[in-house]
Write a structure and sequence with these properties.
Oligomer: homodimer
Strand order of the largest sheet of chain A: 2-1-3
Order of helices and strands of chain A: EHEHE
Strand content of chain A: 35-45%
Structural class of chain A: alpha+beta
Distance between the termini of chain A: 9 Å
CATH architecture of chain A: 2-Layer Sandwich
Chain lengths: 82, 82
Amino acid sequence: MKVVVHVQLREGVLDPQGKAIAGALNTLGFAGVVDARQSKVIALDLEDMDESTARARVDEMCRKLLANTVIETYSVSIEPAG
Amino acid sequence: MKVVVHVQLREGVLDPQGKAIAGALNTLGFAGVVDARQSKVIALDLEDMDESTARARVDEMCRKLLANTVIETYSVSIEPAG
């Protein structure tokens, strides 16, 4: 089964990558870029299990490895089988 | 206006970050992780413009800076105003 985890910096946390992107876009001549924020997506392929088990397990993965919950938030979406 | 760009490695391109994540999850005792792929999301805040202009401009940003189209694909979604 496919599970998609989206990890992003909390609002208010400085995002140097995003700032670099916005700066580079302006340097390249793209006017009108007010701000950019970068975040990451982790697509997991798990062995089949029921959805509530998967959700609990992925939540634990996020807290233990995938996200730094001090500065990041995460959201989990489980893609329906088939 | 908010525009979200999702940049991911093409299928078949080796993803060392994803492999490291899958390995680390297994090491931490999470059984059943078959594979993991990491990708990135860039959320842009642009000055308001009409949607087709925004789409063309962001497409050009992707080709020039945000994605390496040799090994990556990208998708653009424009969030409705308001």
